[in-house]
Design brief:
Blueprint lengths: L2 H10 L3 H15 L6 E7 H9 L2 H4 L4 E8 L7 H11 L4 E5 L13 H6 L3 E4 L5 H8 L4 E8 L4 H14 L4 E8 L2 H9 L7 E4 L1 H7 L6 H6 L3 E3 L4 H16 L5 E3 L11 H10 E8 L3 E10 L8 H4 L17 H5 L31 H8 L4
């Protein structure tokens, strides 16, 4: 497909007339809803689409959105950020990570602050960029601080596989990958979180397949529609959810069927299983969630920065700033404007909480698209 054809395709997914068509259908169907429905969009990418294209303003009042914990930077607890900070300050270490992580404040400051103090901190678009950095700096230890959901985990696995195959001696990994279903279960189980349905993440689902969500309508009575990120995708997915409610159905449906299958990318899944194992992980705002993380398998300890540098890494759990309500925002219990420091003490140029830092964070979306700039 040419770049022009690709542009035409995505212009179609942003067509105002198509969006208006779905708006009318949703408005008509919403009149038949028995009660207000709260839809959680799990992924921060959906949050930004909803805010950027004014989708909240297009919906009737009895359809509400609550924002979820699907931003990999936002859910990173401060002690993990402190790990990255401490590692970056070690002699002859180059700390490599994805862009948004550089600005997230830990208890000692951000990686950006560490860089200002002389640390060699670099951000990359692909984990495989670490290979070039390692070859250019043979006397340095390259530590890749890996983050992300199932979407980015295969790329970290590909990095490790290449490191092993090429016998690269100076690359280590600090792995902070997490998975989607476990926090969804936690949120459903929390009576203070009012969630009637889910918009399922699209890119995660390309890797893991829609099968990972089958339990939610079956066991929990929560409809879920796996949605693409474009505004037409989101509007169509909302319409599909509303129709489930008025027709008395509770199902898993896939709107993003141009890329998502039930089984997903089995080759990527096999690579993930080869190098990673399920581990417990502490989520910012949600606390410890059993088997919600992915850590390196024991046979790859020689590449595990968290074990090699264990003696110097902080162990204490660190809470957020007392005025920051990122935790409640990640649970869908609050919206950014309800935070007392939103847009004042906490802004993208001076973030107090992680939800203001990340390009997928709810606070950043509300700030950018809420006419606060």
């Amino acid at each position: 497909m040419s770049s022009l054809e690709l542009k035409d395709l995505y212009d179609g997914f942003r067509d105002p007339e198509v969006i208006k068509g779905y708006q009318k259908v949703i408005a008509t169907d919403a009149q038949k809803l028995p009660h207000t429905i709260n839809i959680m969009e799990v992924c921060g990418g959906h949050t930004h689409t909803i805010m950027k294209y004014g989708i909240l303003q297009l919906l009737p009042k009895n359809i509400q959105f609550v924002h979820g914990p699907g931003c990999p930077v936002c859910i990173m607890p401060k002690e993990r950020i402190d790990h990255a900070y401490v590692l970056s300050m070690q002699e002859n270490v180059i700390l490599v990570t994805l862009g948004d992580m550089i600005k997230v404040p830990g208890s000692n400051g951000s990686l950006q602050d560490a860089r200002a103090k002389g640390a060699d901190v670099r951000f990359v678009y692909s984990p495989l960029d670490c290979l070039k950095i390692a070859k250019e700096n043979p006397d340095k230890t390259i530590i890749f601080f890996a983050i992300g959901f199932e979407t980015t985990t295969p790329m970290t696995a590909a990095l490790l596989e290449t490191v092993i195959r090429q016998d690269v001696k100076n690359i280590l990994l600090h792995v902070n990958h997490v998975t989607v279903p476990e926090p969804m279960r936690v949120l459903i189980s929390d009576e203070s979180c009012i969630i009637d349905a889910f918009l399922g993440p699209s890119h995660v689902s390309v890797i893991s397949g829609s099968k990972i969500y089958e339990e939610f309508p079956r066991d929990w009575g929560k409809p879920i529609v796996v949605s693409g990120f474009e505004p037409v995708d989101v509007m169509q997915s909302i319409s599909m959810i509303v129709k489930q409610f008025i027709e008395g159905r509770c199902e898993l449906e896939v709107e993003y069927n141009r890329a998502v299958t039930r089984e997903g990318n089995t080759k990527a899944q096999a690579m993930m299983d080869k190098y990673f194992q399920k581990v417990d992980f502490r989520w910012r705002g949600l606390g410890d969630i059993v088997q919600s993380g992915l850590g390196l398998r024991d046979e790859y300890d020689r590449y595990n920065a968290e074990k090699i540098y264990d003696a110097i890494l902080p162990k204490e759990e660190i809470d957020d700033h007392k005025l920051c309500i990122c935790g409640d925002i990640l649970k869908g219990k609050a919206t950014p404007p309800q935070c007392s420091i939103f847009g004042t003490a906490c802004k993208p140029t001076s973030p107090v909480g992680s939800c203001m830092v990340s390009s997928e964070g709810a606070c950043a979306a509300y700030y950018k698209y809420g006419n606060l700039i």
